[in-house]
Amino acid sequence: MDGAPGWRLPAVSALNARGFRLLYLLDAVSIYLTLWLLTGVFILLRPGFDAAAHSDRYAWTYLVIVAVHIAVFYFGGLYDRERRLGHRRRPHGWSPRSGWPRW
User: What is the DSSP string of 39-68?
Assistant: First the structure.
């Protein structure tokens, strides 16, 4: 699948070669949207909770929270590539393609 033409985007490959992973972006977007979703739930469930009036303040605060999370994940090694991933040695008698034992 790696050799298939058009499978990888050139821009993604160029960013990947420079150390940027799409996982950074996906994590940031998912955390940010989750925070807004929770805010929306609290607006519906708590009477008198008027977060919509202060949405600009929440937006900047959530961006700071996302930046801290991404920094902790990065320095914690969450985004490091595992060179051995997918290259483990299978026991004798196991099919390398399906992962099921051959009888």
Answer: HHHHHHHSTT--GGGGHHHHHHHHHHHHHH
| Token pair belonging to 26 | 């996906």
> With 0-12 CB in 10 A as exposed, 13-18 as middle and 19+ as buried, what is 39?
middle
Token pair for 63 = 């961006």
Query: Contact, 62 vs 54, CB < 8 A?
Result: no
Q: What is the mean pLDDT of the chain?
A: 77
Instruction: Give the residue from 26, 39, 7, 15 showing the smallest Cα distance to 70.
Output: 26
Strand partners, 94: 101
Token digits of residue 46: 């708590």
Phi-psi region of 83 (alpha: psi -120 to 50; beta: other; left: phi over 0): alpha
Whole-angstrom Cα distance, residue 91 to residue 40? 50
Instruction: Indicate whether this model's pTM tops 0.85.
Output: no
